[in-house]
């Protein structure tokens, strides 16, 4: 693929994909182990009836956020880091490149370590194999990402139906073991959590992923396809992950479906689920890193950046630093959604629903209004006790709308470097 997935330009009409392809890649991305763990915390805190409504509301809000960005991505052919040039400036967008890229490489390290540790524990391999396995998976999982959208599409078309089948088998077995919904309704919560906190958990777990899902929704042939595929992934797919983790905890006291399948006696299926679940998220994660890295460095060499990112992630995994990164990565998740708020406001309010092409756009070094709105949104998210991710999005978008109306010298865009010379 000579274009290497257009890391620095719009996706042309000739490279656009249909509903099946777009949905498969996005669903593979949202089938994420950490989401099941989040669902496990909900399963301990709510009865089944209330739990189902919370899952629906939380994932619907998450889905609508991802859909709004997906529509813009498909209309423009750009991903979030390229949109960042318009709302943050040519140099200002490097801030979003760094935050998005660092978050993804941290999660890649976590996934690389996780599959090695779980595989050794599950199969009874000797512990000394953990580090060689981390190296193997650290570089192995990036192969489909190096190929690009086409490679992830091939993997997802096989992996997503297989994982759906494994989940259905596990859920059916679990319902039989607990004597159906009647048995579930008799389960009593063991922990306490407010509804607002539960919705925050659902949204916060994967809203950073929703911000970067534009890497694939921009390949959709039409905005309708982008919207349907994204909603299927972030409402249905992510909701299924939350529900799976919640039911696993309620029935077996295990949130991860791999552990649940082992408890149910499906060891072979558990190992397959482990590989497919981690791989379909890992290749998307390192692809996200590569796209952000290409924009940061202004290079078309996406495959080289992909391998470099895999090497960094593998070193972090082998060094045991992935455990230290988790709290910081979760914190960064608070600061990512406001970027989406600024992007939406910039696209609709400043550019009236249509970006100029990147090669013809006259962009400033720093869009001070966009950067200020992002800072306000990130601050609001950090200090908000209620639904921080959504508060960050709303405050960032609202702040940008207000700042666009203010004509003040300090808010003026910084001129491009070429214009200053």
Description:
This is Cytosine permease. The chain crosses the membrane at residues 20-39, 51-74, 95-119, 131-149, 158-175, 195-213, 225-251, 257-279, 304-322, 328-349, 370-403. The protein is mainly α and 421 residues long. Helix content is 75%, strand content 0%. The chain has 20 helices and no strands. The chain has helices spanning 19-30, 33-43, 48-76, 80-88, 93-123, 130-140, 143-147, 149-177, 180-185, 195-212, 214-217, 223-252, 257-263, 267-297, 302-318, 322-335, 337-350, 368-383, 388-405, 417-420. α5 runs antiparallel to α14. The two termini are 37 Å apart. Residues 417-421 have low confidence and may be disordered.
Counting helices, strands and paired strands, the structural category is mainly alpha
Report the β-strand fraction as a percent range.
under 5%
Helix content: over 70%
Characterize the biggest β-sheet.
none
| Integer average pLDDT | 91
Kindly provide the radius of gyration, computed on alpha-carbon positions and rounded to a whole number of angstroms.
Answer: 21 Å
Rough outline: globular
Tally of individual helices = 20
Sequence of secondary-structure elements:
HHHHHHHHHHHHHHHHHHHH
Q: Give the termini separation.
A: 37 Å
Low-confidence stretches: 417-421
| Secondary structure: number of strands | 0
Sequence-ordered SSE layout with sheet pairings:
Blueprint (H helix, E strand, L loop, with lengths): L18 H12 L2 H11 L4 H29 L3 H9 L4 H31 L6 H11 L2 H5 L1 H29 L2 H6 L9 H18 L1 H4 L5 H30 L4 H7 L3 H31 L4 H17 L3 H14 L1 H14 L17 H16 L4 H18 L11 H4 L1
């Amino acid at each position: 693929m000579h274009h290497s997935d257009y890391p620095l330009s719009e996706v042309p009409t000739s490279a656009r994909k249909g509903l099946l392809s777009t949905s498969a890649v996005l669903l593979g991305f949202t089938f994420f182990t950490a989401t099941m763990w989040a669902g496990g915390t909900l399963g301990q805190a709510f009865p089944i009836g209330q739990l189902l409504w919370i899952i629906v509301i939380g994932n619907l809000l998450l889905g609508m956020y991802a859909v709004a960005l997906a529509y813009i991505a498909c209309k423009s052919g750009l991903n979030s880091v390229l949109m960042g040039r318009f709302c943050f400036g040519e140099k200002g967008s490097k801030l979003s490149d760094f935050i998005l890229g660092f978050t993804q490489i941290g999660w890649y390290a976590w996934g690389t370590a996780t599959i090695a540790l779980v595989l050794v524990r599950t199969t009874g391999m000797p512990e000394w194999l953990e580090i060689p396995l981390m190296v193997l998976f650290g570089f192995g999982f990036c192969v489909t990402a190096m190929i690009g959208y086409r490679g992830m599409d091939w993997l997802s078309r096989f992996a997503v139906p297989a994982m759906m089948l494994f989940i259905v088998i596990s859920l059916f077995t679990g319902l039989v073991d607990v004597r159906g919904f009647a048995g579930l309704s008799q389960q009593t919560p063991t922990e306490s959590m407010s509804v607002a906190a539960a919705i925050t958990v659902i949204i916060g777990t994967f809203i950073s992923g929703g911000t970067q899902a534009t890497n694939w929704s921009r390949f959709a042939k039409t905005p309708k396809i982008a919207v349907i595929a994204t909603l299927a992934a972030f409402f249905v797919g992510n909701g299924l992950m939350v529900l799976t983790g919640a039911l696993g905890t309620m029935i077996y006291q295990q949130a991860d479906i791999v552990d649940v399948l082992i408890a149910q006696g499906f060891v072979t299926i558990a190992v397959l689920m482990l590989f497919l679940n981690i791989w379909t998220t890992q290749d998307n994660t390192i692809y996200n890193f590569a796209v952000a890295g290409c924009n940061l460095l202004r290079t078309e060499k996406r495959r080289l950046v992909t391998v470099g990112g895999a090497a960094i992630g593998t070193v972090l995994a082998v060094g045991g630093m992935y455990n230290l990164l988790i709290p910081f990565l979760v914190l960064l998740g608070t600061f990512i959604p406001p970027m989406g708020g600024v992007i939406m406001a910039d696209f609709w309010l400043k550019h009236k629903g249509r970006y100029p092409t990147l090669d013809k756009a006259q962009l400033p070094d720093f869009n001070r209004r966009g950067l200020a709105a992002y800072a306000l949104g990130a601050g609001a998210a950090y200090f908000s006790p209620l639904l921080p991710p959504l508060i960050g999005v709303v405050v960032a978008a609202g702040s940008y709308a207000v700042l666009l109306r203010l004509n003040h010298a300090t808010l003026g865009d910084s001129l491009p470097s070429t214009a200053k010379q």
